[in-house]
User: Fold this.
Amino acid sequence: MLGEKVILHSYKHDQSLHRVWKNETLLEENDEYIIVANRKTRVIESNGRFWYTREPSVAIFFKNHWYNVIGIIKKTGICYYCNLSSPILRDEEALKYIDYDLDVKVDTDFSYNLLDRNEYSRNQESMNYPNNIKKILLLELEDLKQRINDRKFPFKDQIIKNYYNKFREIDEEN
Assistant:
């Protein structure tokens, strides 16, 4: 339901809890994706430590793609942080996905860098990522890069701004 507060869980492939976001606001859900937003949200790490997000963000969790996209609203413009991950699942407890380590950071000019290759290499070995998952992740990484290059949804700043404005309206009402 629009404006509903939801919890977000990220796991690792071995099913261990990675991170928990406690206070996401649901903005849209359809057959393709779930969109949430937050501002200064508490994030709890698996070791119990916590921190707060610095900038407001709008996150798009795909139901049929192995990545998610976070539009981070900075004073200098919108940056995007993309996680290679399992498709999002929703149950009565939380929104849930498996984080597969590789990340893509997209700057305001849409140049991008692939991050955490070493973490991916370590975890694919230590957690025994199956070959079919590794193939899916490589294909989905190429799909993500193409989406960035073509400025396809959600890589249009106005989309992120519109969802963030919707979030602010909901926030003001509560």
